[in-house]
Amino acid sequence: MLPIFNFCQQQFALVQDNNVTVGRLQDLAGQHGVKPFVFFDSDHREAACVIPTAVEWAIEEFNLDAREIAAETGIFEVLRRNQAVVHRAQPASRIAQLASSQHADAIVTVGDLGKPVGVFFPGIVAERLSETRIVRDSLSRFLQTQIRALGNIDHLADAIRVLEKEGIDFHSEQLNLYGAEPYMCQADGGHFRNSCPCPDHPGASCGRVNLA
Fold first, then answer.
1. Tens digit of each residue's pLDDT (9 = 90 or more) over 117-145
2. Tell me: the pLDDT tens digits for 199-210?
3. Cα four-point dihedral sign 80, 82, 88, 89
């Protein structure tokens, strides 16, 4: 089976801190403006793709003190809304199915020690999979058409299984290295979506963003 890491954005600036406080997390969010960033607290093994405005929203909403240890407050649960954390070696088809059934629109993949190594955006992969070079160069026209027909989040797992059945060792610079530009809804501090508009927040601002 193909590992989920092969379908992840692998190029990003990881922000790592130890035993981070709420105040320090707020400072880090402020340094990134509107760009989401991948964060890792190595002491508590907390990993998340952090939306800066969501940090500010959570601090105000739950009246968090700057001196508190962030991992002890539950703020990472808020920041991981519509997210999941999985090991990099997990089967891609399984994680795509999980993303669809659990509405996980951003999945942080981690190594053996919990450190983030990639971010899987299922909506972006579903959009771009059929246009990747390895699909165009390695599959028959019939299978390319089949991959294209499966190009939505609900059928992404089936598209990946087509690649597995054909023995394709999938990798793609388009997905692994270039900016993924995931969708983000601005409601309640912001959260990732597989597409816009956001069905949970009709009328809210929603658009593409770049990872830091």
1. 999 999 999 999 999 999 999 999 999 99
2. 999 999 999 999
3. positive
Lookup: tokens for 66: 């700057």
Kindly state the helix (H) or strand (E) to which residue 49 belongs, with its residue range: strand 46-50
Half-sphere exposure of 34 (CA within 13 A, CB side): 10
Q: Which residues contact 143 (CB under 8 A, 6 or more apart)?
A: 162, 166
Domains of the chain: 4-121 (3.10.580.10), 124-175 (no CATH)
For the full predicted model, state whether its pTM sits above 0.85: yes
Q: Report how far residue 36's alpha carbon sits from residue 109's, in angstroms, rounded to the nearest whole number.
A: 16
Query: What is the rounded (10 degree) CA torsion for 134, 145, 4, 40?
Result: 90
